[in-house]
# Entry
Amino acid sequence: MPAIEQVLGKIDSNLDAAVQRLFGLLAIPSVSTDPAFAQDCQRAGQWLVDELKSLGFEVSLRQTAGHPMVVAHAKAKRRDVPHVLFYGHYDVQPADPLELWETDPFKPHLAETPEGQRIVARGAADDKGQLMTFVEACRAFMETGGLPCDVTILFEGEEETGSPSLPDFLAANRDELKADLMLVCDTGMWNKDTPAITTMLRGLVLEEVIVHGASRDLHSGMFGGPAINPIRVLGRIVADLHDDQNRVALPGFYDGVEDLPHDVAEQWHALDFDQQKFLADVGLSEPAGEHDRSVLEQIWSRPTCDVNGIVGGYTGKGSKTVLPAQASAKFSFRLVGKQDPDAVVESFRAFVRERLPADCRAEFLSHGASPALQLPFSSEALARARRALHQEWGREPVLAGSGGSIPIVGAFKKDLGMDTLMIGFGLDDDRIHSPNEKYEMSSFHKGARSWARVLDTLST
Amino acid sequence: MPAIEQVLGKIDSNLDAAVQRLFGLLAIPSVSTDPAFAQDCQRAGQWLVDELKSLGFEVSLRQTAGHPMVVAHAKAKRRDVPHVLFYGHYDVQPADPLELWETDPFKPHLAETPEGQRIVARGAADDKGQLMTFVEACRAFMETGGLPCDVTILFEGEEETGSPSLPDFLAANRDELKADLMLVCDTGMWNKDTPAITTMLRGLVLEEVIVHGASRDLHSGMFGGPAINPIRVLGRIVADLHDDQNRVALPGFYDGVEDLPHDVAEQWHALDFDQQKFLADVGLSEPAGEHDRSVLEQIWSRPTCDVNGIVGGYTGKGSKTVLPAQASAKFSFRLVGKQDPDAVVESFRAFVRERLPADCRAEFLSHGASPALQLPFSSEALARARRALHQEWGREPVLAGSGGSIPIVGAFKKDLGMDTLMIGFGLDDDRIHSPNEKYEMSSFHKGARSWARVLDTLST
# Structure
């Protein structure tokens, strides 16, 4: 019997106890955004410290200005094996609105459904259940002879509030946290039977523009005509940002954007993605993105420009014949591939300035600029992880993109130069951030088995 | 000695007493918008009733849901003379901010300046001082043999709050108020030495558009690309509303817009209007209206389209990657000549609808639609008033336009079919609606003389 089969058997026989352990963590209301739960965040961190210590990790709870970090290290049984850094977060979203929960969000329980059991509690899927899949995989290895890779674990307690302490912590502990590869379990599967590896995260540039015109608000009766109207100027800028194919019209915007490899494009094309349903769920019927791209491409692998907010003049009830002195808009750009955030900012600002008529000036506020993250399709770690997941699930994992950004992953790439393998077992209907959050037992069980296989293939 | 010279002499000899009478009215703080001054509005109305009664008018104070109307009638000494309706308002703007007044706003006094005396108080120019010019002209006639025209006077006390009671009052008292011509003294002179007759008031169409897209706000990470963004749709609409000559691009918008008569165009061209200063006073340097029109034309005689407000998505501090379900904007159209407000509304709504992509719908709110008012340049009353003012001031009066709208004048035109002669003696620096409001003694004195001459010429 090969060693991995022993490890998987251990995970299977440990399952009931593993669920009870997860319940212990889920029972702690570690809501990071609400100061009333600060002690619970400490308790959750300490719970993980104790848990990892009992497995044989060298662990410490590191205080920050906010909630503490958990850092743990364990060596493999062999030398000259890869060193992985696993990241997860023990903090959770607030449980509100409480009245919509069918059971107490912090009294975890198993619900029986026709498709099997599920774990119900705040944080079941995001991210306590997911991070424990990795811990349980480590446990199974450690109880059957030792880890196949050197493992460092970093759990933070501020992910749901934007990870304010993380950048400084990374900078201060660079050497301790540096590894060959980063692993994250905070994403989803394609569906209940099909695993996914998220290889692409779009980057994000956030720019605000305030267009200033006259020195004060003017009466449109007196000045309507001769006085420039900043709302009109902004409207022109918004309109010009896309061409009639819905492509972003900023010069150079598509520099660094590459087409998908043929096999990935084919995989996406073959997916049972119901684009009509995706749109219909939010009241839409036609994709509004680039004309020649599928919806999946539009959200996973294509860059965008969005206006997230605009305001100027009178916005109350009724009317007011004012010509405002200023108007402002917030723009976000989702970036892919090798698009350079700084170049996008520069191109955008030049684009705006070129459209300013006489007597207008633009004030720019930057709210962040981060590049896209792309695990190279040629990566050896990716090839091994694909093999491991295929073995566990009997299906080729989907090489997914993610329309959103995960700033933490960017920070690890930027500060520690590490690529990240994002493998998660969440499902679209897990109701993360919502009442009655759940995590499928199959996700929890096969998730732990998946990590065991991934660690095993990475080490051979 | 012709009769009019006697009347003018009476005005001259009455001047000190006239100022004292005006002071009596100015001392009543008839602030219409603040319920705390409701009794003062009653007092001001009653003051006018008493004043007009003492002159021989048949007068009544008519209560409304708000502040009362004063209606007065007096017959001319001769029969078969024109019947004029004079309109003014006895209510005033609040005096706030009080600390910026150099003297008590309701303790009227005379200030001496190198150019002459001025009357300082809230309402001195808007509109108590102006309306008393007409009353003093009537007094002089009545003390020297009688009025040359039949005169009806209507004073209201709600002009500064949008005249809410006026439409119903007009409808209920149509026969009593109907006259051959309406006279209003609530406008300004061209400058201290040059009178003006306002012959054009721009009309006003107020439209609000709400563009609806998805059924709820979306996350731009998840939906940026395939989901339509109502702000973008609105930006396109705003941008398309003007062509590159700054002309309004609505089909049919300029139907009914006529060029100025040659002599009026020449008069405007010859005016000492400092367009650079006009713009520089509000921080601008270049006219932003139609390319081939002067600033004076742009505000007096040309129609415009303005965006008075726009709002959509996240408008707080920082950023939020939201794709809003809706965005809205408020538009105003200033109309001139024979532009049809209903046709403008219809064209605008069609214009918006044509620019709605799939999955977007537009909701329209109307906040009013009134046509422009134009006293025909060929009007006999206008010709006579020009002659009268020329005689008094030694200069041809400017045939001015007004960029703003005066809804009351529109209501009289629409409901009673009366043309209006707007002659006022305010100056740009009178600080109406602001602290230290004043009215020049020359405006008050020569204003009364002007009305005497106008009434005289109208009757001959």
Notes: Chain A has two domains: 3-201+373-459, 203-257+303-370. Residues 3-26 of chain A form the longest helix (24 residues).
